[in-house]
Amino acid sequence: MAPGHRHGSVPPVVLLLLVATVLGSLCLSLTASPEAQKRYNFRFVRHARDAPLVSYYNYIVVGGGTAGCPLAATLSERSRVLLLERGGLPYGNRNVSSEYHFADALADTSPRSPAQRFVSEDGVVNARARVLGGGSCLNAGFYTRASSGYVRAAGWDPRLVNASYRWVERELVFRPDVPRWQCALREGLLQAGVTPDNGYTLEHVQGTKIGGTIFDRAGRRHTAADFLRRAYPRRLTVFLRATVSQILFRRTGTQTGQLRTVPPKERTPEAMRRLDRRAFRGGFILEKILGPMSTGHVALRSADPDANPAVTFNYFRDPRDVERCVRGIETIERVVRSRAFARFTYANVTAMEAAVLGRRAGHLPVNLLPRRATDTRPLQQYCRETVMTIWHYHGGCHVGAVVDQDYRVLGVRGLRVVDSSTFKYSPGTNPQATVMMLGRYMGLKIQKERWTRNDETH
Ligand SMILES: Cc1cc2nc3c(=O)[nH]c(=O)nc-3n(C[C@H](O)[C@H](O)[C@H](O)COP(=O)(O)OP(=O)(O)OC[C@H]3O[C@@H](n4cnc5c(N)ncnc54)[C@H](O)[C@@H]3O)c2cc1C
């Protein structure tokens, strides 16, 4: 699913520092804080059961996710837009809105959970968003732009890209507080040779940096749903609990098919119970293999939109990825042994011992892989046994293979795909900035095309 990343000179291994669905017939749930109610009083948001039998719009956006919300908000500036989202509101759900409940949202396996759990065919535990705001309501909040090389390779207009990033950042990007142990980690990275020190930046650059976050200083999450504050309210209608199961094509345009509200099925509840929340408490250091050489595949099991697809990641199938992981772990070992990090380590325990002990105690239940007897190559074994997703999914719907450069589905009029599935490589250190940017960017482009066309015909 994620073939090699070959843009720019950023190294392939990136170290990351981790730091409601109750809806009435309209607006916010009663559990939302008064502040949230005031701030996000979206009168155009309704439950799907209130949908009229037939209605007409210039654009219908399926999925109010990380790309869908900025896209719908932008299109509503000049056109009538319908946004259909299968989940509920993010506001009033503590698991979404508080930084400290990151793991709780992922551990909630109820049918109304904002996260729909699934396990890949090769045993890696995953989640799909099911809430207005999509993955931005579940994610760890890291915000970083794509590199200029990535923007060039995508064939995007760099000026419009920059303007779109700025639009996104005005709404929901914050400079994080950096607590003491994270400062020590940053210093440790520099002492371990991960240079230069880039300070605070939203750019994707080589070295050590403090990136942006969508959590504010009070630990409150700001999500893509917040972009709807920028929408033109009279031209936007949002239906929640609106699972689109069909799109009917006509010669003259597009109309939505049936709306369903069937609760999604959990694929492997037993596996889900094994996710230990403690794994996500406190601080931990993640290593990401940026653009792995190993490739996998994704296939639909059925036409039911709630059914999880069959995904095989094949992480570490290519031995070069194992070696890259080992190099990353060696860097982390140097960081942990650095002077800067000294007061966060125990005198008698090496970094590797601590990591292996944690693994044996089962504190990283991020995959269902069987544990083997100790290997002669412990770092390689460590990489394989602690493999997890970092949820930066992309590649299910490539530009060139499924959609054209303008994100139109090949051979189909009036249908585009605008989301992270169109990316061939995961952009930046983390993708959400670019997913949001793409929603805004394509919204502006589509508007421009439509109004230029109309000007010409009038
Ligand atoms: C746990 C986790 C941690 C992450 N951490 C980070 C991070 O720190 N930084 C970062 O940059 N990225 C992170 N990501 C990745 C990032 O959040 C995703 O790349 C991004 O949210 C994908 O956006 P999208 O618009 O493509 O899809 P989504 O945001 O998932 O949107 C899809 C939307 O469509 C809806 N939908 C789907 N099917 C239907 C249907 N049939 N009918 C109606 N609605 C439908 C879904 O409910 C969902 O709301 C993380 C992701 C997860 C899950």
CATH class: Alpha Beta
Strand order of the largest sheet: 2-11-4-3
Distance from first to last alpha carbon: 46 Å
CATH topology: FAD/NAD(P)-binding domain
Structural class: alpha/beta
- Average pLDDT level: 84
Domain Glucose-methanol-choline oxidoreductase N-terminal: 57-254
Keywords: Signal
Protein name: Glucose-methanol-choline oxidoreductase N-terminal domain-containing protein
Organism: Oryza barthii
Can I get a quick summary?
With 458 residues, the chain is of the alpha/beta class. It is 28% helix and 14% strand. The protein has one domain: FAD/NAD(P)-binding domain.
Structural overview:
By secondary structure, this protein is an alpha/beta fold. It has a single domain, classed as FAD/NAD(P)-binding domain (3-Layer(bba) Sandwich). It is built from twelve helices and 18 strands. The strands form eight sheets. A four-stranded parallel sheet has the order 2-11-4-3, covered by helices on one side. The chain has a two-stranded antiparallel sheet with strand order 1-16. A two-stranded antiparallel ribbon has the order 5-6. A hairpin with a 5-residue loop joins strand 5 (115-119) and strand 6. Helix 7 packs across helix 9 (319-337). It is globular, with a radius of gyration of 22 Å. The chain starts with 12 loop residues before the first strand and ends with a helix. The model is unreliable at 1-10, 17-31 and 253-269 (pLDDT under 50).
Secondary-structure topology with pairs:
Layout: E1 13-17, H1 34-39, E2 45-47, E3 59-62, H2 68-75, E4 81-84, H3 94-97, H4 102-107, E5 115-119, E6 125-129, E7 142-143, H5 148-154, H6 158-172, H7 180-191, E8 197-200, E9 208-210, E10 212-213, E11 236-240, E12 243-244, E13 247-250, E14 253-256, E15 259-260, H8 269-273, E16 285-289, E17 297-299, E18 310-312, H9 319-337, H10 351-360, H11 378-385, H12 432-457
Parallel strand pairs: 2-11, 3-4, 4-11, 8-9
Antiparallel strand pairs: 1-16, 5-6, 7-10, 12-15, 13-14, 17-18
Bound molecules: flavin-adenine dinucleotide.
